[in-house]
Amino acid sequence: MKRYITVVFVSFLCLNLKAQETTILNVVYDFSYTRDLADPSNPYKSEMILSAGQSGSRYTTRDLFNRNSPAAIKLNKQREAKESSGAAANTTVAVGGPMLTVSNAGTLINEEIFISKTNGTVQTAGRIGFKNYHFSVPLPSINWKLGNEQKMICGYNCQKAVGDFGGRTFEAWFVPDLPYSFGPWKLNGLPGLILSANDTKNEISFTCKEITKNSDPEELITSYMNLGRSVEVKPKEYQRVAGMFASDPAAMVEAQISGTTVSVRNLDSPGDKSIKKITRYNPMELK
Protein backbone atom coordinates (compact mmCIF):
# COMPACT_ATOMS: atom_id res chain seq x y z
CA MET A 1 0.00 0.00 0.00
CA LYS A 2 2.83 2.40 0.87
CA ARG A 3 4.50 1.69 -2.49
CA TYR A 4 1.23 2.46 -4.36
CA ILE A 5 0.80 5.80 -2.58
CA THR A 6 4.40 6.74 -3.39
CA VAL A 7 3.96 5.94 -7.09
CA VAL A 8 0.75 7.97 -7.29
CA PHE A 9 2.38 10.93 -5.54
CA VAL A 10 5.45 10.87 -7.80
CA SER A 11 3.27 10.63 -10.91
CA PHE A 12 1.18 13.61 -9.76
CA LEU A 13 4.33 15.59 -9.01
CA CYS A 14 5.75 14.92 -12.48
CA LEU A 15 2.53 16.03 -14.16
CA ASN A 16 2.45 19.16 -12.02
CA LEU A 17 6.04 20.05 -12.92
CA LYS A 18 5.33 19.60 -16.63
CA ALA A 19 2.39 21.99 -16.37
CA GLN A 20 4.54 24.64 -14.67
CA GLU A 21 6.70 25.58 -17.61
CA THR A 22 8.56 28.89 -17.45
CA THR A 23 7.40 31.62 -19.82
CA ILE A 24 9.97 32.55 -22.48
CA LEU A 25 8.16 35.33 -24.33
CA ASN A 26 5.12 37.54 -23.79
CA VAL A 27 3.54 38.96 -26.95
CA VAL A 28 0.92 41.73 -26.89
CA TYR A 29 -1.56 41.76 -29.78
CA ASP A 30 -4.20 44.22 -30.90
CA PHE A 31 -7.25 42.02 -31.51
CA SER A 32 -10.09 43.14 -33.79
CA TYR A 33 -13.19 41.04 -34.41
CA THR A 34 -16.38 41.78 -36.34
CA ARG A 35 -18.66 40.02 -33.88
CA ASP A 36 -21.85 41.61 -35.24
CA LEU A 37 -22.25 41.27 -39.01
CA ALA A 38 -25.01 43.87 -38.83
CA ASP A 39 -22.53 46.43 -37.50
CA PRO A 40 -19.19 45.82 -39.30
CA SER A 41 -17.98 49.39 -38.69
CA ASN A 42 -17.94 48.78 -34.92
CA PRO A 43 -15.71 45.71 -34.37
CA TYR A 44 -14.88 44.34 -30.95
CA LYS A 45 -11.35 45.40 -29.98
CA SER A 46 -9.07 44.31 -27.17
CA GLU A 47 -5.46 43.82 -26.15
CA MET A 48 -4.50 40.17 -25.78
CA ILE A 49 -1.35 38.55 -24.43
CA LEU A 50 0.30 35.33 -25.60
CA SER A 51 2.74 33.76 -23.15
CA ALA A 52 4.88 31.20 -24.95
CA GLY A 53 7.17 28.47 -23.68
CA GLN A 54 8.89 25.52 -25.32
CA SER A 55 5.92 23.16 -25.18
CA GLY A 56 2.94 25.27 -24.16
CA SER A 57 1.28 28.64 -24.50
CA ARG A 58 -1.44 30.72 -22.86
CA TYR A 59 -3.47 33.34 -24.75
CA THR A 60 -5.70 35.60 -22.72
CA THR A 61 -6.90 39.15 -22.12
CA ARG A 62 -4.52 41.79 -20.81
CA ASP A 63 -6.87 42.27 -17.84
CA LEU A 64 -6.70 38.61 -16.82
CA PHE A 65 -2.92 38.63 -17.34
CA ASN A 66 -2.46 41.77 -15.20
CA ARG A 67 -4.51 40.27 -12.37
CA ASN A 68 -2.55 36.99 -12.29
CA SER A 69 0.97 37.51 -13.65
CA PRO A 70 3.52 37.82 -10.78
CA ALA A 71 5.43 40.53 -12.66
CA ALA A 72 2.28 42.50 -13.47
CA ILE A 73 1.04 42.20 -9.87
CA LYS A 74 4.32 43.57 -8.55
CA LEU A 75 4.18 46.48 -10.99
CA ASN A 76 0.55 47.24 -10.11
CA LYS A 77 1.39 47.27 -6.39
CA GLN A 78 4.20 49.74 -7.04
CA ARG A 79 1.85 51.99 -9.00
CA GLU A 80 -0.84 51.75 -6.33
CA ALA A 81 1.67 52.75 -3.65
CA LYS A 82 2.63 55.87 -5.64
CA GLU A 83 -0.99 56.81 -6.31
CA SER A 84 -2.37 55.90 -2.89
CA SER A 85 -3.08 59.52 -1.99
CA GLY A 86 -5.62 59.89 -4.81
CA ALA A 87 -6.94 56.34 -4.86
CA ALA A 88 -9.94 56.97 -2.62
CA ALA A 89 -11.24 59.76 -4.86
CA ASN A 90 -11.12 57.51 -7.92
CA THR A 91 -12.74 54.42 -6.39
CA THR A 92 -16.03 53.31 -7.90
CA VAL A 93 -18.40 51.26 -5.77
CA ALA A 94 -21.10 49.17 -7.38
CA VAL A 95 -24.26 48.95 -5.30
CA GLY A 96 -27.30 46.78 -5.91
CA GLY A 97 -25.94 43.78 -7.77
CA PRO A 98 -23.12 42.14 -9.72
CA MET A 99 -21.12 44.30 -12.16
CA LEU A 100 -21.23 43.52 -15.88
CA THR A 101 -18.31 45.11 -17.75
CA VAL A 102 -18.98 46.02 -21.38
CA SER A 103 -17.63 48.14 -24.24
CA ASN A 104 -19.35 50.06 -27.02
CA ALA A 105 -19.14 46.86 -29.11
CA GLY A 106 -20.99 44.78 -26.51
CA THR A 107 -20.02 42.47 -23.68
CA LEU A 108 -16.35 41.73 -23.10
CA ILE A 109 -14.80 38.44 -24.15
CA ASN A 110 -13.15 37.01 -21.04
CA GLU A 111 -11.40 33.93 -22.33
CA GLU A 112 -8.21 31.92 -22.08
CA ILE A 113 -6.74 29.54 -24.66
CA PHE A 114 -4.20 27.11 -23.22
CA ILE A 115 -2.19 24.95 -25.65
CA SER A 116 -0.17 21.94 -24.51
CA LYS A 117 2.01 20.27 -27.12
CA THR A 118 2.95 17.68 -24.50
CA ASN A 119 -0.68 16.56 -24.16
CA GLY A 120 -1.63 17.47 -27.73
CA THR A 121 -4.60 19.54 -26.54
CA VAL A 122 -6.04 23.02 -26.69
CA GLN A 123 -8.17 24.06 -23.74
CA THR A 124 -10.66 26.92 -23.87
CA ALA A 125 -11.94 28.50 -20.67
CA GLY A 126 -14.25 31.51 -20.55
CA ARG A 127 -16.44 33.53 -18.25
CA ILE A 128 -19.84 33.97 -19.87
CA GLY A 129 -22.08 36.21 -17.81
CA PHE A 130 -21.33 35.20 -14.23
CA LYS A 131 -20.44 31.55 -14.82
CA ASN A 132 -17.22 29.89 -15.97
CA TYR A 133 -17.16 27.23 -18.69
CA HIS A 134 -14.38 25.16 -20.21
CA PHE A 135 -13.68 22.41 -22.73
CA SER A 136 -10.66 20.64 -24.18
CA VAL A 137 -10.13 19.28 -27.70
CA PRO A 138 -7.20 17.73 -29.61
CA LEU A 139 -4.71 20.31 -30.85
CA PRO A 140 -5.74 21.16 -34.43
CA SER A 141 -3.30 20.42 -37.22
CA ILE A 142 -3.38 23.36 -39.63
CA ASN A 143 -2.12 22.66 -43.13
CA TRP A 144 -0.09 25.83 -43.66
CA LYS A 145 1.28 26.77 -47.07
CA LEU A 146 4.47 28.79 -46.75
CA GLY A 147 4.99 31.75 -49.05
CA ASN A 148 8.05 33.74 -50.08
CA GLU A 149 6.71 37.15 -49.07
CA GLN A 150 8.40 38.86 -46.14
CA LYS A 151 7.84 41.98 -44.05
CA MET A 152 9.02 43.52 -40.77
CA ILE A 153 6.79 43.33 -37.70
CA CYS A 154 7.91 44.58 -34.29
CA GLY A 155 11.52 44.60 -35.50
CA TYR A 156 11.46 41.00 -36.75
CA ASN A 157 11.64 39.77 -40.34
CA CYS A 158 8.49 37.71 -40.87
CA GLN A 159 7.45 35.19 -43.53
CA LYS A 160 3.93 34.73 -44.89
CA ALA A 161 1.85 31.56 -44.58
CA VAL A 162 -1.75 30.70 -45.47
CA GLY A 163 -3.88 28.06 -43.76
CA ASP A 164 -7.48 27.04 -43.06
CA PHE A 165 -8.92 26.74 -39.56
CA GLY A 166 -12.43 26.84 -38.13
CA GLY A 167 -14.07 27.45 -41.49
CA ARG A 168 -11.88 30.47 -42.26
CA THR A 169 -8.74 31.02 -44.32
CA PHE A 170 -6.00 32.85 -42.40
CA GLU A 171 -3.02 34.77 -43.70
CA ALA A 172 -0.32 34.68 -41.04
CA TRP A 173 3.15 36.19 -40.63
CA PHE A 174 5.62 34.24 -38.52
CA VAL A 175 9.21 34.69 -37.31
CA PRO A 176 11.62 31.84 -38.16
CA ASP A 177 14.14 33.43 -35.75
CA LEU A 178 11.72 32.81 -32.85
CA PRO A 179 11.23 29.02 -33.16
CA TYR A 180 8.07 28.70 -31.05
CA SER A 181 5.17 27.17 -32.99
CA PHE A 182 2.47 29.21 -31.27
CA GLY A 183 0.40 32.23 -32.13
CA PRO A 184 -2.65 34.23 -31.13
CA TRP A 185 -5.88 32.44 -30.31
CA LYS A 186 -5.70 28.82 -31.56
CA LEU A 187 -3.39 29.47 -34.51
CA ASN A 188 -0.31 27.27 -34.23
CA GLY A 189 1.96 24.84 -36.03
CA LEU A 190 4.26 27.15 -38.02
CA PRO A 191 8.09 26.95 -37.72
CA GLY A 192 8.15 30.20 -35.81
CA LEU A 193 6.06 32.52 -33.63
CA ILE A 194 3.04 34.12 -35.37
CA LEU A 195 3.13 37.90 -34.97
CA SER A 196 0.25 38.85 -37.24
CA ALA A 197 -2.76 37.10 -38.74
CA ASN A 198 -6.10 37.90 -40.32
CA ASP A 199 -8.83 35.95 -42.03
CA THR A 200 -9.46 36.62 -45.71
CA LYS A 201 -12.91 38.09 -44.92
CA ASN A 202 -11.16 40.75 -42.79
CA GLU A 203 -13.45 39.93 -39.88
CA ILE A 204 -10.70 38.80 -37.48
CA SER A 205 -7.20 40.19 -37.06
CA PHE A 206 -4.32 39.91 -34.61
CA THR A 207 -1.46 42.41 -34.82
CA CYS A 208 1.66 42.27 -32.65
CA LYS A 209 2.47 45.53 -30.89
CA GLU A 210 5.08 44.41 -28.36
CA ILE A 211 7.35 41.43 -27.57
CA THR A 212 9.17 41.03 -24.28
CA LYS A 213 11.50 38.26 -23.17
CA ASN A 214 10.76 36.97 -19.70
CA SER A 215 13.47 36.86 -17.03
CA ASP A 216 11.25 36.09 -14.02
CA PRO A 217 11.30 32.38 -13.01
CA GLU A 218 7.90 32.88 -11.35
CA GLU A 219 6.27 33.58 -14.72
CA LEU A 220 4.85 30.17 -15.61
CA ILE A 221 2.70 28.83 -18.46
CA THR A 222 -0.22 27.85 -16.26
CA SER A 223 -3.95 28.36 -16.55
CA TYR A 224 -5.38 31.42 -14.80
CA MET A 225 -8.93 30.09 -14.87
CA ASN A 226 -10.14 28.19 -11.81
CA LEU A 227 -11.49 25.07 -13.50
CA GLY A 228 -12.58 23.70 -10.12
CA ARG A 229 -15.41 26.25 -10.24
CA SER A 230 -16.05 25.89 -13.95
CA VAL A 231 -18.65 23.90 -15.86
CA GLU A 232 -17.21 21.50 -18.43
CA VAL A 233 -19.20 21.58 -21.67
CA LYS A 234 -18.95 20.38 -25.25
CA PRO A 235 -17.42 22.82 -27.77
CA LYS A 236 -20.75 23.38 -29.57
CA GLU A 237 -22.51 24.05 -26.27
CA TYR A 238 -19.86 26.61 -25.34
CA GLN A 239 -20.29 28.38 -28.69
CA ARG A 240 -24.08 28.34 -28.27
CA VAL A 241 -23.92 29.87 -24.80
CA ALA A 242 -21.37 32.48 -25.93
CA GLY A 243 -23.62 33.43 -28.84
CA MET A 244 -26.68 33.72 -26.61
CA PHE A 245 -24.80 35.93 -24.16
CA ALA A 246 -23.51 38.25 -26.89
CA SER A 247 -26.98 38.50 -28.45
CA ASP A 248 -28.88 39.19 -25.22
CA PRO A 249 -26.61 39.61 -22.15
CA ALA A 250 -29.40 40.70 -19.80
CA ALA A 251 -31.50 37.62 -20.51
CA MET A 252 -28.51 35.34 -19.94
CA VAL A 253 -27.65 36.96 -16.60
CA GLU A 254 -31.28 36.78 -15.43
CA ALA A 255 -31.31 33.08 -16.29
CA GLN A 256 -28.07 32.51 -14.36
CA ILE A 257 -29.00 34.56 -11.28
CA SER A 258 -32.75 34.93 -10.89
CA GLY A 259 -34.00 38.13 -9.28
CA THR A 260 -30.70 39.95 -9.59
CA THR A 261 -30.16 43.58 -10.61
CA VAL A 262 -27.10 43.99 -12.79
CA SER A 263 -24.89 47.08 -12.69
CA VAL A 264 -23.20 48.05 -15.96
CA ARG A 265 -19.71 49.51 -16.42
CA ASN A 266 -18.84 50.64 -19.95
CA LEU A 267 -15.09 50.93 -20.45
CA ASP A 268 -15.48 53.08 -23.59
CA SER A 269 -18.35 55.31 -22.41
CA PRO A 270 -18.49 55.44 -18.56
CA GLY A 271 -21.81 57.28 -18.53
CA ASP A 272 -23.58 54.73 -20.74
CA LYS A 273 -25.38 52.07 -18.72
CA SER A 274 -26.96 50.29 -21.69
CA ILE A 275 -25.77 46.98 -23.11
CA LYS A 276 -25.35 46.55 -26.88
CA LYS A 277 -27.01 43.44 -28.24
CA ILE A 278 -25.47 41.55 -31.16
CA THR A 279 -27.98 41.34 -34.02
CA ARG A 280 -26.13 38.94 -36.35
CA TYR A 281 -23.67 36.98 -34.24
CA ASN A 282 -20.53 36.02 -36.14
CA PRO A 283 -18.65 33.20 -34.33
CA MET A 284 -14.89 33.10 -34.73
CA GLU A 285 -15.09 29.40 -35.61
CA LEU A 286 -17.63 28.89 -38.38
CA LYS A 287 -17.31 25.12 -38.22
From TrEMBL:
Residues 1-19 form the signal peptide. The keyword Signal applies. Pfam families: Porph_ging (PF09697). Keywords: Signal. It comes from the Bacteria. NCBIfam families: GLPGLI. This is GLPGLI family protein.
